């Protein structure tokens, strides 16, 4: 066993997991408080990436671009809530799925029209573009460490926000009984819009962080949104803790599966078969995990006690 | 709904009646999704070709219809069906992606039309599925990586690690390099196509394998993402990169905009380059640049060629589109002027052609482009030709 | 301060309220009585904008409440202690008090967590317990405290003593009297006629979505016929 | 005709149009429209099957496209081996074998996934059915023998007695008759005691349970019936397109099926067929105008969800009922 490789892959898995958490946390917030299934959450991830990518060239620096793109993405989220999402809250989950599926088509096509099909490659400042050697042989790109750092910081911030601020109390209260929150004098519509915008910013931030790695691309949201749903379902919808744990688990499973499954498979089949079976099985693994968990715990790992 | 259908019906009847003396060409490419980067470049090249022809082939007007495959085999087959059955085209050209071509070929060939691949060249269509009405204006998938394998041998690389997407062309590329590379292949990673764009796990494995080189195939936008991550991982000195079809004229301007200088000097094999010295290529590259402000990609070059290949067929029979044999013979002779220079067709209608090693350089205007470093093969034929029953 | 006239409300296509008339004067304790299913809770939900009224008028100190958003109504100074308490189960007791607290009317001596604990001392030791772990009595006190923390002028209590032990019930009534002394108006929906006769100033009896009897405690006390006919006492 | 409701009238007229127009297109040399109609009718069967559990049973299955794929591969795999050798056990062009495989595999898949999925409720059910669909998608993606992602071309269609599926007219005829039978079957099921329990459980599951019905078993049975019907649609689709790929099972395809049902009108007899018709025609018309057709298409989706209660069939119910 190559422990250096294992260490590097665990870090890679952690990084993927934290990115997933950024997307899933917004999703679970919105679902938890609004009971709203939002497939278009992934499109906001894409929009965040594109806005940030464009701004990187305008402002000349990736970090400045992120700082400006964050509130802009929040505004996009706010606008989507006002124009589309708000009108869907009263309907059932089926309508949410279909309505936001339509929204995905609209946003993806709009991004194609606005930014072209090519996608944008995002340059990083020099100091972020290098790599560090954590110990002999364990070389990690600096930027991936930055993603891990940002992810952990945001996760901490979110836990603080949800558990120790008045906004957080209102978010939790709203998740359990919106009528009562409203009857006690809180403008629930504005609270919803705020939460939606916050979710959008989190998802957008994930998109901004991935852009220097994979580029900003149309359709990038469609891939992550399903994984993010798997995360919040496994974690228990509405649970921030669940989302965090599930995201890390899935990030690790996916990365470690991609790295070591083929080696494992060569134990039971020939090399060629292992080479092709491994990627598919590792792609399937998160769904298998989800099915198994739901079969045992139909409400996910940490169902919040709200209703 | 009924009224809508009868209106649509009436419309099609009208166009059916208005059939003038024209040659109908369907061009299937990718116009939506991330794959559209490539499709758009082909679209530009095809339109430029038509312009250069003055809109005529063998005295007939050219009626060109583009079809969008949406980067999916199934959609590609559906638009192909429509071109064949509804628009009743005489030629179907295009096809960037091998799996789309494999899904669509039967629709065209069963209908007795000509099929011209302007990019994709999966093994089966060159071998056991070869067909008299199929021609390629590009290459067979394995050829380019075979040339790269040859280059690796010449450079004295002893071992490589391979990363490629898990679809028809990816498998072909891996098969190709395996065929000619004489050293050891320490590992092969096939990634989910086209969704996986983060290669951190694969890069870490490649590095840990201790290989002397990294062979990679990532067409379109994935190539850009891969190059970027390769650079971020800092592997340039420890694990040199050898690519096919992963750096192209579409990604270079983006790299230049992002000032991604590591890509300068990287090398890859190909059957064409903008610097190839012949009149057809000079005109193509110059006019393309004048019109679109960027170098054409090899996708564009092949699409451009596909139109002139068709033109040579229609010219040869003087516009008599019923003379299939005449058109077939004309194309088989490859007597048109190709932007890559002269080549011939093998028994399977795949080009027997030269392959070059290209390198990324700055041109005189400071734009990033490529030039030819050496000729790897003078006239290379693919290995599937022997499986083809035609002669 | 609150004047309801000819209020009608529907659930979907079926009508529940058929023209309620009711008024509360400043500093008064007023009750809404009647058997189950007669429209008491619906009346309160209509006042609070939880169920939109379909006709009539609800006037609170000159402001029309019909078609007004729930939170805007609350912010005029109406504090709701709802039927079933509806404590937020996933918030601690302390958080339940603080989450929605406000002082929109700039009351000079606003309610604080400390003052609520003075009123209900038994809550203080439980302040870090989650809402769903509190006993029924604690939840009821908390619900009252939660409403007080919005610093209302009018507190509305819907079935505030339902299912509580007599001792706890007495505590609730005692707290209401304290609140009243501080100048707040109170609207109570309850079934404990005996206690209410002692505390309340006026009573409204509702039957099939209409107010069928109204008057002072004295009048109700004497009108045994009405008591029997409408309340089954 | 007088005692037909408006809805019934639309149903009859729609079905007559589907019976007459496509053959007319074929005879007038418009083979492409015949193709379009065949696709529409086959997806109509799939939508009708989904409607049984989604519309009448309240089970929002987001993985139904998996059954289409299973049915199609049940044609493709035996046919592939019959052409290229290997896997002698099932290598055959025999359509009856294909059919038995398609229905059997669908039933088995429905039984296993249904048994697990039905333990969950609400959005969990939506997502777990999607997860199973995705598993099928990735499974076939990994099957290298059948070209994985690249898909499988069916060189020889299923050989059935009396029917030649190579004839577009006969294939359409079979599909059309199958659609009619599927609609009648769903109607019969819905009006039976079984169907009553199913619909009762959709409205108020607890009440049905307290009435002594094991609603879990009823739902599971409905889920399996629906999966088998959808697998049959896959059998037809495989024979129609002669090209199958894992993409047929992708979650977006399941979403499209759901949309067809909702667009036409869930829990109505003709709604799913109307939905699939409108879906395919709109897609065809929009995409012939612009490559950006997903934009208006998405707007239409949102519009339908926001403004059309009960789908298009809801428009015909109107006030005159």
Rg calc of chain C: 17 Å
Rg from Cα of chain D: 19 Å
CATH architecture of chain C: 3-Layer(aba) Sandwich
Structural class computed from helices and strand pairing of chain D: mainly alpha
How many runs of DSSP E, i.e. beta strands of chain D?
2
Main sheet properties of chain C:
6 strands, mixed
> What overall geometry of chain C do the principal axes of the alpha carbons give?
globular
Key phrases:
heterotetramer, B: about 400 residues, alpha/beta, Rossmann fold, 2 domains, six-stranded mixed β-sheet, four-stranded parallel β-sheet, 13 helices, D: about 325 residues, mainly alpha, two-stranded antiparallel sheet, 2 strands, about 75% helix
Describe this entry's structure for a reader.
- The complex is a heterotetramer of chains A (307), B (391), C (233) and D (321).
- By secondary structure, chain A is an all-alpha fold.
- Chain A is built from 12 helices and 2 strands.
- Chain A has helices at residues 3-34, 41-59, 62-83, 93-115, 126-129, 142-164, 166-176, 178-183, 188-214, 220-235, 240-265, 271-296, and strands at 131-133, 139-141.
- In chain A, strands 1-2 form a two-stranded antiparallel sheet.
- In chain A, a hairpin with a 5-residue loop joins strand 1 and strand 2 (139-141).
- The mean pLDDT of chain A is 91.
- Chain B is an alpha/beta fold and 391 residues long.
- Chain B has 2 domains: 2-139 and 277-352, Rossmann fold (3-Layer(aba) Sandwich); 143-270, Rossmann fold, CATH 3.40.50.2300.
- Chain B has a 6-stranded mixed sheet with strand order 2-3-1-4-5-6, sandwiched between helices. A 4-stranded parallel sheet of chain B has the order 8-7-9-10, sandwiched between helices.
- Chain C has a single domain, classed as P-loop containing nucleotide triphosphate hydrolases (Rossmann fold).
- Chain C has helices at 40-48, 70-75, 93-99, 113-119, 121-124, 136-148, 166-181, 193-199, 217-222, 224-231, and strands at residues 2-11, 14-24, 29-33, 55-60, 63-64, 78-81, 154-158, 185-189, 202-207, 210-216.
- In chain C, the strands form 2 sheets. Chain C has a 6-stranded mixed sheet, with helices on both faces.
- The relative contact order of chain C is 0.19.
- The mean pLDDT of chain C is 92.
- By secondary structure, chain D is mainly alpha-helical.
- Chain D has a domain at 46-249.
- Helix content of chain D is 73%, strand content 1%.
- Chain D has helices spanning 6-27, 31-56, 65-84, 95-117, 122-142, 168-191, 193-203, 205-210, 215-241, 251-264, 271-289, 294-307, 311-317, and strands at residues 152-153, 243-244.
- In chain D, helix 6 crosses helix 7 (193-203).
- The mean pLDDT of chain D is 92.
- Classes of the chains: A mainly alpha (307), B alpha/beta (391), C alpha/beta (233), D mainly alpha (321).
- Chain A binds chain D through residues 31, 37, 84, 87-88, 91, 93-95, 97-99, 101-110, 112-113, 222, 226, 229-230, 233, 237, 273, 276-277, 279-281, 283-284, 287-288, 290-291, 294-295, 298-300, and chain D through 54, 60, 62, 116-117, 119-124, 126-128, 130-132, 134-135, 138-139, 141-142, 144, 148, 251-252, 255, 258-259, 262, 292, 294-295, 297-302, 304-306.
